[in-house]
Specification:
Blueprint lengths: L2 E9 L5 E8 L4 E5 L6 H16 L7 H10 L7 H22 L3 H4 L8 E9 L2 H13 L4 E6 L27 E4 L1 H19 L4 E5 L6 H11 L6 E3 L9 H8 L4 E3 L10 H5 L5 E2 L8 H12 L5 E4 L7 H13 L3 E5 L5 H6 L4 E4 L2 E4 L11 H4 L11 E4 L4 E2 L2
Parallel strand pairs: 4-5, 4-12, 5-7, 6-15, 7-8, 8-9, 9-10, 10-11, 11-12
Antiparallel strand pairs: 1-2, 2-3, 4-14, 13-14, 15-16
Helix pairs in contact: 1-3, 2-3, 3-10, 5-6, 6-7, 7-8, 10-11
The protein binds (2S,3R,4R)-2,3,4,5-tetrahydroxy-N-oxo-pentanamide and cobalt (II) ion (CO).
Cobalt (II) ion binds next to loops.
């Protein structure tokens, strides 16, 4: 079943998305997500100039071989741009295989290991009271797990807090917004938020928090300890993880569960973290870590080491990337949780998707393939516009991690 056509579609229905469409000789098509927030056109060039010329004429049925061809065959391996490009091809090929087999992709991955996918929502607020109210709002909608972010008094533009409560989107502007950071103020403030939340709502709801790479391992260890009484589901990205060994120190000092890996793009980014059992959840996601094939390799490594999956799922993952995660989540044995952000109506019209949220779980319908389409005509009405993620500086002006 030869691949006869490949097209990269860039559109911006409320935010930028890069979508790959592969067509086979019998007219079957598959869709893949290649969106790298703030660096979109680098992936477009990589796909158009370097991968698509090799892809035309290949047998769409050989998913693993095509994955290996673009991974091993690149000479310059790994990296977010390469792996997002491979991810889009991989997703489109799983979509095609599902359509050819007349089965949803999760069936091809071994079938359902659970009835539905547990997801977490995002409560954020500028004050403690607002956060408490927002958590209540998510509980009322049936969410079982909620990530909580709050503005830190004295810190301008704290991560994860936005005016639009349903749709958090950090990418904006003609140039990167400059945020500020103060570790001492943050460490002082955050445990009180969780104390208040437990006092208000008890321990039945799962609470999560994202540090967004802002602490050193020692500071992270301290925060993990101070949060222990409030029994978080996880503490995310406590420190940057280019140095995987950095997590040894955090792990030794706290029982707060640790999650990391949304910016990872390959299994080699997490071998030490997984095999030394330094984390509890691995956050690699389909769009950024080589598609469903990449995720399966990482999850298989993680399974014997008691590490569960917790795929990244912000608004910059398109409904196609989200569906790829959902099929994987339904089938993978060591599933933990899935991050889930509601896309806007406009996005959902461009990408009509076959998954639905109900009472804190996402259900997949039984459409063949990934179950997401792309309205190309509508997508064409929303042209790309350059957007950047923010950057972060300390109060003395030093660059810090956003
Ligand atoms: O900052 O997706 O857990 N979620 C996150 C996200 C990321 C954005 C970056 O593109 O950390 O909000
Ligand atoms: Co995160």
């Amino acid at each position: 079943m030869k691949i006869t056509d490949a097209k990269v579609i860039v559109s911006s229905p409320d935010r930028n998305f890069v979508t790959l469409k592969l067509v086979t000789e019998d007219g079957t098509y598959g869709l893949g997500d290649a969106t790298v927030n703030g660096r979109e056109l680098a992936v477009v060039a990589y796909l158009q100039e370097h991968l698509i010329p090799c892809l035309i004429g290949m047998d769409a049925q050989n998913i693993e071989d095509i994955w290996q061809y673009f991974y091993r065959g690149a000479y310059w391996r790994r990296g977010p741009i390469t792996m997002a490009s491979i991810a889009a091809i991989d997703m489109a090929l799983w979509d095609i295989k599902g359509k050819l087999a007349n089965m949803p992709v999760y069936q091809l991955l071994g079938g359902k290991s659970r009835k539905a996918v547990l997801v977490y929502g995002h409560a954020n607020g500028s004050t403690e009271d607002e956060v408490v109210e927002q958590v209540g709002h998510y509980l009322a909608q049936g969410y079982k797990a909620i990530r909580v972010q709050c503005s830190v008094p004295g810190v301008q533009d704290s991560y994860g807090v936005s005016a639009d409560k349903a749709f958090y989107e950090p990418a904006a502007g003609a140039l990167p917004e400059v945020c500020s950071w103060n570790t001492a103020k943050y460490l002082d403030f955050i445990p009180g938020i969780f104390e208040k939340l437990r006092a208000t709502y008890g321990y039945d709801v799962q609470l999560l928090h994202d540090v967004h790479h802002r602490l050193t391992p020692n500071e992270a260890a301290h925060l993990g300890k101070s949060l222990e009484p409030f029994r978080l589901f996880w503490l995310e990205d406590a420190t940057p993880a280019e140095l995987q060994e950095g997590f040894r120190h955090i792990r030794r000092h706290t029982t707060t569960p640790l999650a990391v890996g949304e910016v990872f793009n390959s299994i080699y980014d997490c071998t030490t973290l997984i095999t030394e059992q330094l984390i509890d959840y691995i956050r690699t996601t389909s769009t950024h870590a080589g598609g469903i094939t990449g995720l399966r390799k990482i999850a298989a490594l993680a399974e014997p080491f008691h590490v569960k999956t917790g795929c990244h799922g912000p608004t910059d993952i398109s409904p196609i990337g989200m569906a790829a995660c959902m099929h994987f989540n339904l089938a993978v044995p060591n599933f933990g949780i899935q991050e889930f952000m509601i896309h806007t109506e406009k996005i959902n019209r461009v990408f009509p998707a076959g998954y639905t949220l109900k009472d804190g779980y996402v259900y997949l319908d039984d459409q063949p393939g990934l179950g997401v389409d792309l309205d190309e005509k509508l997508a064409g009405q929303y042209p790309y516009s350059r957007k950047y993620l923010p950057v972060n500086r300390l109060e003395d002006g030093s660059m810090w991690n956003w």
